[in-house]
């Protein structure tokens, strides 16, 4: 089941609110500084995420090696995007990994008679698409709009597409309301 929200949508397990598939992929680890909840712990979970993200229409047969490559890519994308937000230099190893994976074949896309789109491929095809999206974002004009969520425990990165560039949270429902409630309780002196 998919629920839509202002900045994206929620799957039953996964959240897509970052405004870019590569940032959503990096967001499959929640609260990196605190509890470190990893949503991609099995090859099956990776396959499910690829479908939920709209990269493939049917489950790809992902194995342990695919999962290991996916985790490497996810962490490289996260470090590159985070460095972009802080103005730190990129690690060459991360940049080269993303470039290498992006160089692979992408999912095939076909327009159906009903005006829908079919996306086919395997895990490597989908990872190449994620890496390509990361390159286009990190090397493109929107790179300065990558931000980290303003909620204390959230480490999600997102693309701020607001007109003024003043968005503070990855998602108002996930983090904005929680941060506002915590601030209100702190001002009132209540736990």
From TrEMBL:
Pfam families according to UniProt: ABATE (PF07336), zf-CGNR (PF11706)
InterPro entries documented for this protein: ABATE (IPR010852), ABATE_dom_sf (IPR023286), Znf_CGNR (IPR021005)
SUPFAM superfamilies found in the cross-reference section: Jann2411-like (SSF160904)
Residue stretches making up the Zinc finger CGNR domain: 145-188
PANTHER family registered for this protein in UniProt: BLL6575 PROTEIN (PTHR35525:SF3)
Protein name listed in UniProt: Zinc finger CGNR domain-containing protein
């Amino acid at each position: 089941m998919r629920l839509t929200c202002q900045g994206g949508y929620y799957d039953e397990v996964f959240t897509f609110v970052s405004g870019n598939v590569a940032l959503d992929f990096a967001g499959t680890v929640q609260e990196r500084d605190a509890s470190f909840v990893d949503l991609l712990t099995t090859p099956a979970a990776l396959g499910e995420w690829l479908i939920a993200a709209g990269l493939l229409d049917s489950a790809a047969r992902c194995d342990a090696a695919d999962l290991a490559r996916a985790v490497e890519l996810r962490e490289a994308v996260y470090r590159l995007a985070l460095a972009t937000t802080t103005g730190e230099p990129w690690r060459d190893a991360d940049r080269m990994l993303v470039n290498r994976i992006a160089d692979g074949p992408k999912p095939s896309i076909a327009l159906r008679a009903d005006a829908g789109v079919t996306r086919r491929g395997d895990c490597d095809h989908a990872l190449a698409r994620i890496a390509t999206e990361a390159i286009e974002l990190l090397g493109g004009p929107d790179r300065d709009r990558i931000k980290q969520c303003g909620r204390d425990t959230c480490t999600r990165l997102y693309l701020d597409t607001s007109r003024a560039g003043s968005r503070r949270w990855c998602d108002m429902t996930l983090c904005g309301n929680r941060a506002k409630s915590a601030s209100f309780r702190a001002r009132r002196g209540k736990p």
